[in-house]
Write a structure and sequence with these properties.
alpha/beta; Rossmann fold; DNA polymerase, domain 1; two-stranded antiparallel sheet; about 15% strand; globular
Length: about 220
């Protein structure tokens, strides 16, 4: 029986790509970079944290650390400015979370979004449903590093065999594997849904409502 659900954020709980794209393109422009990216291009770059996003966006400019530092300094305040207004929870997600809570499931988030921004976003869209929201912290390795999951388990007295990870991408598959947890893969998100990703999931869901329909939760 699964009693603890660890969720990814971007592409799983909330559709955030419009805000990311807007902030990224504006940050590049004010940094003097004449490159912009479409929604689909941004989707292909997200999932491994802001640093990786910016490195990929600046790939054509080479490995220029000074330009990266300028772009990052511009990007993070812009994303904080836009993230709430330019994001929306996936349809049916709030009801799904509430249903899991009704069944006695504890809810957690582990994301590569900067921790301050992740908490602001989720406390706005889903107050107060999560026991803990753990995001990216400077100097700490990002997903698929499983250490923050283990730390949350220890803090909250959770059993690994009663836990599951829920996400939408190859990064989430790698995270679940590293943590030794089964994966619910959300195919409505930002991943590339073909092999080998599909074969790595224990369960596949096409809509947020499908998560609560899986027969692993308390009745």
């Amino acid at each position: 029986m699964i009693r603890n659900a660890f969720f990814d954020l971007d592409g799983t709980l909330v559709d955030t790509v419009e805000g990311i794209a807007k902030a990224l393109n504006e940050a590049l422009a004010v940094s003097g970079v004449s490159i912009s990216y479409s929604r689909s291009e941004v989707i292909s770059m997200i999932g491994r944290g802001a640093d990786t996003l910016l490195r990929k966006a600046l790939k054509e400019k080479g490995n220029d650390d000074s330009l990266f530092a300028i772009a990052k300094r511009n990007y993070l305040p812009l994303y904080e400015k836009y993230q709430i207004a330019w994001s929306r929870p996936f349809s049916g997600m709030k009801g799904t979370l509430e249903e899991l809570l009704r069944r006695g499931v504890r809810l957690f988030v582990y994301t590569n979004k900067p921790q301050k921004l992740a908490r602001e976003l989720l406390e706005y869209h889903f107050p107060p449903l999560f026991d803990e929201i753990d995001g990216q912290i400077e100097t700490r390795a990002v997903k698929p590093n499983p250490a923050p999951i283990f730390e949350m388990m220890e803090r909250h007295g959770l059993k690994k065999e009663e836990s599951i990870y829920i996400g939408d991408s190859i990064v989430d598959s790698e995270t679940a594997k590293a943590a030794g947890l089964p994966l619910i893969l959300c195919t409505y998100g930002y991943g590339k849904y073909d092999e080998p990703l599909l074969s790595k999931a224990r369960y596949l869901v096409a809509e947020p409502e499908d998560i609560a329909k899986i027969s692993v939760w308390p009745s």
